[in-house]
Design goal:
The protein is mainly α. The chain folds into two domains: 71 residues, no CATH class; 185 residues, MetI-like (MetI-like fold). The chain is 72% helix and 1% strand. The chain has 18 helices and two strands. A two-stranded antiparallel ribbon has the order 1-2. A hairpin with a 2-residue loop joins strand 1 and strand 2. The two termini are 51 Å apart.
């Protein structure tokens, strides 16, 4: 005890953090270790070694994962700003020897980028907003109301998640082409008027399914809203009913404000899926243009832009720079949007019950 008491009285070395009683953390640790057995000391040393090694290991793990995830984007940016001759230069790996905007300009001209972007935003943002509203109402109904056939209908919603769009593409095409059989009847009396009932190449082919909560990945969005609304306290609705609110007013004034993060999450999901869609768009559109459709046909468009012929064959190695430039143009709006909304998107994912 005397030795320990004397040790306590010794001043801490210069630069050491004083914890209490004039002792540093290192001195307190030495005092504690005198009262430990060999197994406890060995465990303490292993723990200290792990605490020092783990941050370094974690850094390399995260760095490796980030490189794997960001590699396509880094390569895309590198190719989009390099000259054509750099693709044949073996010394050029990541940093272009000749920086140029020529490739981006040629790709933008081939894609008619600004007109295509405006058309994509019209379909994308509009359908996403409509689908968020209809899916929210549907999800709220499944979460809060009891009615006959509820489980059966929710099973159909789950089937919407599992069954791909390709299964119903032909029946949907026939519905839009002949407007549920109305168009052939009108065509016999007035062929000019009948053409207005042909919805192919019309934005209604995208808006009508979204209005019926049956747009792209609508089943998953209904499921997200259902999970979120089920997690809200029932007392919120009870208090609104006591104040004289009906179900619709309760949904608008009470539930929607509390579900703002969930609305944003579903909206971002919808925007991304509509933005990247080319299968549904190519099924119902022949003259309309979206970013995804332009990117799909970029080889042909570039041949027409650069060589005035769709049959000209270009080396795949030389095509890479234009294809990467097209990919960069297509993902840039989404990256900008996600950069500003990332915080709210993560919060919405956590509160919707999709993780954890």
């Amino acid at each position: 005890m005397t030795a320990i008491f004397k040790k306590k009285q010794e001043p801490a070395a210069e630069g050491e953090h004083i914890v209490g009683n004039g002792l540093s953390k290192k001195q307190i640790r030495q005092i504690h270790m005198r009262n430990m057995n060999k197994e406890e000391i060995a465990y303490l040393k292993r723990k200290e070694a792990m605490d020092k090694v783990w941050p370094i290991a974690r850094f390399f793990i995260l760095f490796g994962l980030c490189f794997i995830i960001l590699y396509p984007l880094i390569y895309m940016i590198s190719c989009a700003f390099r000259a054509q001759e750099d693709m044949s230069d073996p010394t050029v790996m990541w940093i272009p020897r000749h920086l140029t905007l020529k490739i981006l300009k040629q790709t933008m001209n081939a894609m008619d980028f600004w007109h295509t972007l405006a058309n994509t935003l019209f379909l994308n943002i509009g359908c996403s907003l409509v689908q968020v509203v209809t899916c929210a109402v549907t999800g709220y109904g499944f979460a809060r109301f009891k009615f006959k056939g509820k489980n059966l209908l929710f099973g159909i919603v789950l089937m919407m998640i599992l069954v791909p769009n390709q299964i119903i593409a032909i029946p949907q095409y026939m519905e839009f082409r002949y407007c549920l059989g109305i168009q052939p009847l009108i065509e016999k009396a007035n062929p000019t008027l009948a053409q207005k009932f042909n919805l192919i190449d019309s934005p209604l082919t995208m808006y009508l399914p979204a209005l019926m909560a049956n747009g792209i990945r609508a089943g998953l969005m209904i499921f997200i809203f259902r999970q979120f609304f089920k997690g809200l306290p029932k007392e919120l609705e009870d208090a609104a009913y006591l104040d004289g609110c009906g179900p619709f007013r309760t949904f608008i004034q009470v539930m929607v404000p509390n579900a703002a993060s969930s609305f944003l999450t579903v909206f971002l999901f919808s925007v991304v899926w509509y933005w990247n869609d080319y299968y549904v768009s190519s099924t119902f559109f022949t003259n309309n243009s979206t970013i995804a459709l332009m990117l799909k046909n970029l080889n042909t468009l570039l041949s027409l832009e650069l060589f005035n012929s769709a049959t000209v064959e270009v080396s795949p190695r030389e095509q890479i720079i234009w294809m990467e430039a097209g990919c960069l143009l297509s993902v840039t709006p989404l990256l900008v949007m996600y950069t500003f909304l990332q915080k709210y998107f993560t919060e919405g994912i956590e509160r919707s019950g999709l993780v954890g």
